[in-house]
Amino acid sequence: MHLERVLCRNFRNFEELMIDLNPNLNIFLGANGQGKTNFLESIYLMATANSHRSSITSEMISWDQEKALVQLLLRRREGKIKLAMRLEKSGRQVEINDNPLDKVKELLGYLNAVLFSPEDLKLIKEGPSHRRDFIDLEISQVSRYYNHLLNKYDHILKQRNNLLKSIRDGKSADREMLSVWDEQIAAVGSKIILKRIEVIDKLKILARLSQRKITEGRENLELEYDISLNNFSKKLGEAELRELFIDSLIAKRDQEISRGYTVIGPHRDDIILKVNEMDLRKYGSQGQQRTAALALKLAELEFMKSETGEYPVLLLDDVFSELDGLRRKALINIIADKIQTIITATDGENLSGLKNNSYNVYQVKNGRIKRG
Ligand SMILES: Nc1ncnc2c1ncn2[C@@H]1O[C@H](COP(=O)(O)OP(=O)(O)OP(=O)(O)O)[C@@H](O)[C@H]1O
Q: For the whole model, what pTM was predicted?
């Protein structure tokens, strides 16, 4: 798939912007703070229905305005699609081919995009929530049903936590109601866990391949789902996993009541990353961590291709200056003509290897973008 046109009106520092993109490579150059990341944000917002920088709609609207619009023309194998998001301080509305959708999340699955930015090192270095978000966002882009499960799980978790707090604080003694929530959280949570494991099994093969390629066979990257339920075995089917989930909740009853929240479930799980059998987060060098972040992103591209039959759009936010020769080469080889890529950089210094393709260059200055 590729984007043909991006239109932004009163989005961040863009008053009115209409950019026609090259189906292969697009390079956006500009000094710091001119609007390069804002441009990528407008695209990623349409892929994930959320900004990667802020969940607050009003922050994306130009400061002196009440409303903003982002509109994309997308070409997929089955034809052209027009996606639009209208942002107002009170919320967002989305449209597909000029037809409004009921929920913003229904935008998921039309535009698939992979974003790689220096921030992605957090995926390796920081806490489990970054890795959970990574896997959840990735699956949500190819499965609206999975996203629906996540929303349902969040809702059940909140209700269950409220009840646990009330019991702890002596405001409620409704332990029977707790059993009802146990059933519900286990039913939805088991589905989420099984899907994550299935996807991680695919990703680990792809990421391992990428890591070996980038390091010329020196590093083996491994990914493993780290589940918070005791006695879990990969052989369990959905019904058995649900039973195990409920039993585990019952075993944790006193602990959960004294803490006032749910201590096990997919919201507490993690992904363990190892290089050559060593825990990457704790012991990996900066270089190994950067390579793994890149390998995961490359795996994400291939995973989406295998799920949807088309490569997603690749957004690279100022990453070339941070990559060494080998990693840069690996990324350039992947991009080569088959994936529409949108790159931002402060200058073209590290991008020379890319320019064999057909490409457009744009200059970004103070919220204006000009080709050439
Ligand atoms: N809601 C908004 N309304 C108007 N301007 C905004 C808004 N949000 C951010 N900006 C402006 O956008 C600019 C930042 O743009 P952006 O983050 O795209 O920078 P960049 O070109 O990617 O630079 P860098 O290379 O430093 O990342 C800043 O000048 C900021 O003041």
A: 0.91
